[in-house]
């Protein structure tokens, strides 16, 4: 019998105890990932996932999530979902109830959620709205009123507004993704007693993103990949880089070639770091193998990931290797 383990990125500590409890009772890796991630999505103090997540440029919270199983590589995901607080559960429903598809976005994902009995809720909290308005005001002050108006949505599609939005995007993400603190997408990977692996990813995405932007969290091979022959991997940070580099898939391929989890993550991030990107922000990754080995990598010192086993009383933090 395999010894159960569950790991997660920064801030997953809010959910890992719920996940390991599922595994202790003999539950599946998929059940554990969903239970743990729902706790994270419901954490109103976390502004990068679920209810309370930071909104897009128009002040609307749009959520992405995915789950993937290692045994048969089934994948379910949703992107740019509005009005539903637990996208991880909708992603699971796509995996289990809509086998002809892997990914639903926007209005279609919301229709599917409604048809499957998920309840709507307000996602934009007063705190997230306050942060959004403060950042817009800072941008407007620095760039002029035209920037503030266009980002807030009045002229988002206009040529000048779009140009100014793109020019200020880097400054916005740097203010909202500081290197000195944990931020970004949440990754959770679980290994159950039967030996099944599951990777789950959930996020509210790039702060103040262009409406409709879907990141790597919902894209197989980019932010999420799982193959029981080698392991599971997930990414957080600058999703456009992991989409271009196929970073999660690269990590699992490296595991299959015999690299240990930390080194596989480091090599994949180093590869992504060679891609040109004017909006570069840190990319992080973590991985778990079918025999329970785990590791992670990041571009900055001080980054950690959390681990719980059946014997754990609380999440234990492990350092990631640095590029």
UniProtKB/TrEMBL annotation:
Positions annotated as active site in the UniProt record: 185 (nucleophile)
Q: Which InterPro entries match?
A: Ntn_hydrolases_N, Peptidase_T2
Residues that hold substrate according to the record = 213-216, 236-239
Which parts of the sequence are marked as the site Cleavage?
A: 184-185
Name of the protein in its database record: Beta-aspartyl-peptidase (Threonine type)
Q: Mind listing the GO molecular function terms for this protein?
A: hydrolase activity, acting on carbon-nitrogen (but not peptide) bonds, in linear amides
Where along the sequence do coiled-coil regions lie? none
Q: Which organism is it from?
A: Streptacidiphilus jiangxiensis
The source's domain of life comes to Bacteria
* CC per GO annotation: cytoplasm
